[in-house]
Amino acid sequence: MTPPILITGAGQRIGLALAKHFIAQGQPIIITYRTRHAAVDLLEQQGAVCIYADFSTDDGISTFIKVLKEHTSSLRAILHNASSWDCEANNANFAQLFDNMMRIHAKTPYLINLLCAELLLNYQTEMNTPADIIHLTDYVVETGSPKHVAYAASKAALDNLTKSFSAKYAPNIKVNSVAPSLIIFNEHDDEQYRAKTLKKSLMGIEPGCQEIINSIDLLLHSHYITGRAIPVDGGRHLK
User: Fold this and answer.
1) Three-state DSSP class for residue 6
2) Backbone dihedral angles phi then psi of residue 186, each to the nearest 5 degrees
């Protein structure tokens, strides 16, 4: 059996789109979820292994890794998609906000990468080709964000982990990141917000999850790219 790809936070939005993509390809997947949306039930019906994971505590991360290893002895790739879009305006407990952002975006991937490396190395040994770790970071890694200070800092930490782990695990495991800006709007985003956001990039469109899928497919099929971040931002850096 083909070893599975692990996708964290795949119950909605980009993670869900990735899960559907790999299922359509016949690629086995394991996903994590914290809230069991109806989409998780559907993924399970289609053959995905769906594991509840609470990454807000060290015990929650450890429990998830233990359960994961009960399901598989090797992994084709780990896609770190789990994320939280919290900000200072919505959370007056700044200390807690900072800790939460660092935990979900940096500490969780850090621990999973270290404690699940053996699963990726088993794939590399079995298939004689590198396994992959891919972090989903953010465009704001380059710029910072005055409205999402803790969020931006934590995604920058994740970007740095890409560099460190790529050096640590080469040549057996390639480690890269994908850094998107706008990909898909939320349902509650009003027209004024949408129009303002679209003007921030040169391309001026809502590109959709396929852009992330394409970038991740590129990294998975490459035998040579590691330690790099692929920007998926519509030329926003030039505006």
Assistant:
1) strand
2) -85, 155
Counting Cα atoms < 13 Å in the Cβ hemisphere of 17 gives 14
Marked catalytic residue, from 33, 110, 139, 151: 151
pLDDT per position as a tens digit, 63-106:
999 999 999 999 999 999 999 999 999 999 999 999 999 999 99
What does the alpha-carbon distance between residue 176 and residue 199 come to, in Å, rounded to a whole number?
Answer: 28
Is 193 part of the annotated catalytic residue set?
Answer: no
Residue 121: strand, helix, or coil:
helix
The three-state (H, E, C) secondary structure of 142-174, written as one string = HHCCCCCHHHHHHHHHHHHHHHHHHHHHCCCEE
pTM for the whole thing? 0.97
What secondary structure letter does DSSP report for 3? P
Q: Is 226 helix (H, G, I), strand (E, B) or coil?
A: coil
- Spatial distance between the Cα atoms of 8 and 33, rounded to a whole number of angstroms: 7
